[in-house]
Every structure is written in structure tokens, then in C-alpha cells.
Sequence to fold (344 residues):
Amino acid sequence: MHTLGLLVLGFVFGAALRYARLNRFDTISGLAMLQDFTVAKAIAVAIGTGMVLIHLEVALGWASLHIKPLLLGGVVLGGLVFGVGMAILGYCPGTLAVSVGEGSLDALAGIVGGLLAGWLFTLLVPVMTPLLGPNLGKPAAATLLGWASVALWVLVLVVTGVLWSVAFVLHRLDRQRDARWLVAGVVLGLLEALVFLKGVENRPIGASTAYPYLADLLTGTTGNAYFHKIARSGAWEAVFLAGALLAGLVLSLVRREFRWTVVHRRWQETRGADPRSRLLWAFVGGFFLVFGARMAGGCTSGHILSGGLQLAVSSWVFMGTVAVGLVATGHWFYRAGRSKTGGV
Fold:
């Protein structure tokens, strides 16, 4: 697809995130503190929706699977590091672009930290390779059970039902009662199914590869095997994220909600109102976020969402380790900050 079409896909992605406030610091940090389940609900619905569609598309020959390898060390350690960064930063690689478009300067600091992490990872890949293994292949439900297996389709339908059920159970625990998360989840699942089609993009949605790609271009670090490996995906994701940034900018301007912001409500309540502290921690969180994503080979969109709906073992392992890092860090980081600031 040409650049304009890819920008449109990114715009739809960003618009869906913004519609349900999935890109906001308060929403993602709220998940880390187990006080806001909007992101978890939307992801569950997106995976459940996309899972059925993509398995049908592949079975009909309209799409292909794009499974990330189960590099055990990278997926587990990278997932933990990613979860730490996500909790501190309060954004994901894809949501950073949308929030910058809305005027969140802490998200911009996170992007700078992510670019540094991407560049450093490029330099360290040769010595980190042993740490990222062993490579256990690309196991997924379809490859393990076979496309002709009744068990596969039973599993797809059961997991889909469980994910939708979990989403509504979490919705009962949330204080917010609007259904924007449900709409956004369905849109994201449909968008994944569209992007997977051979006649469209024939690939999954992703975001984190754009960071080392852009960082390497900016620093001239392009004469290495890693850059050549990620160049195509990185270029695709950079344009896709540009569309997401445009969605944040255009929609916030149209709705007169554009604001230059550094310190958000939940940060102020738990860590204080000092913008310098927020910018510093956002930079650190962005660094951990992207470095962890590169270790694991994907992020929230590329691993959890795109891989989860393919029932890829590597992506479900990543999802679990991210959850551990996210919640553990959220409990420690924000509780410790609250005790210092006297927040409630």
C-alpha cells in the first residue's frame, strides 16, 4: 500500500486509541495501579474479535500468519523490562505518538528515551544475542494443532468467548461506565484483520521497530545487520505512527482539546507536580519500554495484540511477563510516590 493509504490506517489506529482514551497516561498508569481496566478490556475485545477473523482469513488463503519466534530469554526478560517501562512512562510505543499529537510533552520525552534505547540496542545486539535465546521456534495453536483440526477452531472460539467475558467482568470493576473501550476494541480487531490481508499489507500492526529504525537513521548507524533486518518493518511502522500522531493532533484540534501538558492528574496525585521529575521519569520509562520491546521482538500492538490474536505462544508468554512487570512496578512506584507526596 502506498504512503497515503498507510497514513490512513495509522490515523484509524490513532483515532480508535484516542476515542477510548487508551493513549492517555492516566488510563495506562491506572492499569498499572489496578485502578483502571480500560486498556485491558479493549485489548481483550480486540484480540477476541481479530482472532476469529484472522484464523478464517488464513484458512481461506486470504492472509498468512506472522508469528514472532519464542526467543525465551528475550521474551521473558524483555517482557518484564517492557512492563516496568510501561508503568513508569504510562504509554506504549504506539500510544506515545497519539499523545504527542495531543500536546503531551511527557510523551515526547518518552519518545526521546525510546529512540536512545533503540539506537543502543542496535549497538548491543551482537553481544546480547546469547541472552535472548534459546530460540524455540514459532509455535502457535494453528501450527501445533493443524488447520484441519476441530480442536483448533474449538480453541479459537473458547478463547474468544473467555476474552469477551473477562472484558465485561473487568467492566463491572471499573468506575467508568461508558462503552468506548468496546467500540475501540472492535475497531482495533477489525483493523488487524484488514492489515493482515494479502491484498492490503500482509503483515501485523506494530510500533516499536520504528524506534531503532529512526534512531539508526538519525545517527547514521545503518551499516549493520540489525538495521538491514528491521529496515522494512521500521519504515512501515514509522509511517503508520505518523498517521497515529496526525489522528491525535487533528482530532484534538477539531474537538478543541489540544493542550500542552507535562504532568497529568494521576502523576500529580502520586508523584507530585514537578514537571522536571515527570520529564525525567518519562525519558527513563521510554528507554525501558523500547529496550524491552526490542529484546522481546515486539510491543503491545506487535506482540500482545497482533500475536495474541494469532494464538502465538511467544506473544502470550510476553503478555504474561509484561503484566507482572507492569503491576509490580505500578504497585511499588506509585505507592512509594504517594507516601512521599501525601497524595490520596
Remarks:
- Residues 3-341 form one domain.
- Residues 225-254 form the longest helix (30 residues).
- The radius of gyration is 19 Å.
